[in-house]
Design goal:
Layout: H1 6-11, H2 32-38, H3 43-46, H4 50-64, E1 69-70, H5 77-81, E2 86-89, E3 93-96, H6 118-131, E4 136-141, H7 143-152, H8 160-168, H9 170-194, E5 198-203, H10 211-217, H11 219-229, E6 236-240, H12 247-252, E7 257-259, H13 266-273, E8 278-283, H14 292-305, E9 312-316, H15 326-339
Parallel strand pairs: 1-4, 4-5, 5-6, 6-7, 7-8, 8-9
Antiparallel strand pairs: 2-3
Helix pairs in contact: 4-6, 6-9, 7-8, 7-9, 8-9, 9-11, 14-15
Length: 342
């Protein structure tokens, strides 16, 4: 029964047999078996093949003995599913053919229905049968991050177009995020109803915002997503990169678990977030390129900082890097499990 898994217990801030571990981007990228099954298949197409999604999602569970699987997908999948012309270009990332810049462009963002992503329902059905007592984490991109991609037309370092709309036409910006909140909530509902045991909202680009701007221009839409799935009773995780100054607000948005990147120690993060939340994180992903004894020493630093937390899910402070040695991840899981055995 997934309900009694170490991962879900930690999310609920209940006593655990050991600190649970999973890794963002564990499904894919660093695994040779992933590269083999994905060979010649474009990224977005691979997200729409239920058997392939199932295999890729299961690979790190088999190899690393992680405490949770994370559904193999991409944050732009729901946008593709409602008919937007976008693609994930190797070495670049998501590229949107016609960026959203005007009120007329909002009309292209129609509601997402379960039929639009029937492959997700099918894949999660296959997965939950295979995973047994191992929980599956569903996920989606947060409205701010999705809006930034749509307005910029692709990845950006400065977010100048997105911020120009946010500051210059706050009503259009708010309507765009509200529309994306509905699409995101619908996408998460499909995953939960199909069998996902928890969900994570990735606000990868929220760190580009000052706290006042986040509170005004991003947080309401994220809060709407969390509220929309609250009734299911599954843990809701909220993660962003470079969000040390936003941790309190990200907790306020409605998550049960706040993901912390590597820039803020977990005990300090807990102080900023306040009581009533579990924390997830937060080993710097680049530490895995160091010798094993260094990885273990840095892991102890994270575990020591987490010692007083109400609930802790061990993770990296961001996703697994593609050139990471998979064996380093396997050893890390084993080390955390052994070190924290109660």
């Amino acid at each position: 029964m997934t309900h009694d898994s170490a991962f879900l217990k930690a999310c609920r801030r209940e006593p655990v047999p050991h600190t649970p571990v999973w890794f963002m981007r564990q499904a894919g990228r660093s695994l040779p078996e992933y590269r083999k099954v994905r060979e010649g298949i474009p990224m977005l197409e691979s997200c729409m093949r239920p058997e392939l999604v199932t295999e890729i999602t299961l690979q790190p569970v088999r190899r690393h003995n992680v405490d949770a699987a994370v559904y193999y997908s991409d944050i732009v999948v729901p946008l593709k599913a409602i008919g937007l012309d976008l693609d994930i270009k190797p070495g670049v990332g998501p590229v949107v053919e016609q960026p959203v810049r005007t009120r007329a462009d909002l009309a292209r963002l129609r509601d997402l229905t379960p039929e639009d992503v029937s492959y997700v329902t099918e894949a999660i059905g296959l997965l939950t049968r295979e995973l047994g007592s191992t929980p599956l984490i569903g996920f989606a991109g947060a409205p701010f991050t999705l809006a930034s991609y749509l307005v910029e037309g692709g990845p950006s370092r400065t977010y100048e177009n997105a911020k120009a709309m946010m500051y210059g036409d706050p009503e259009l910006w708010a309507d765009l995020l509200d529309r994306l909140a509905d699409i995101t909530a619908a996408f998460l509902k499909v995953q939960i109803e199909a069998g996902a045991s928890a969900v994570q909202l990735f606000d990868s680009w929220a760190g580009a915002l000052a706290p006042a701007d986040y509170r005004r221009s991003a947080m309401p839409a994220s809060a709407k997503v969390f509220e929309a799935v609250a009734g299911y009773g599954v843990p809701r995780i909220h993660f962003g990169v470079g969000t040390g100054e936003l941790l309190g607000l990200m907790g306020e948005a409605g998550a049960d678990v706040v993901g912390v990147d590597w820039r803020v120690p977990l005990d300090e993060a807990a102080r900023r977030i306040g009581p009533g939340k579990a924390l997830q994180g937060n080993l710097d992903p680049t530490v895995l390129f160091a010798p094993t004894e260094v990885v273990e020493a840095e892991t102890r630093v994270v575990l020591d900082a987490a010692a007083g937390l109400e609930g802790h899910v061990f993770n990296l402070g961001h996703g697994v890097m593609p050139s990471t040695d998979p064996d380093a991840l396997t050893r890390l899981v084993e080390y955390v499990h052994t070190r924290t055995a109660r």
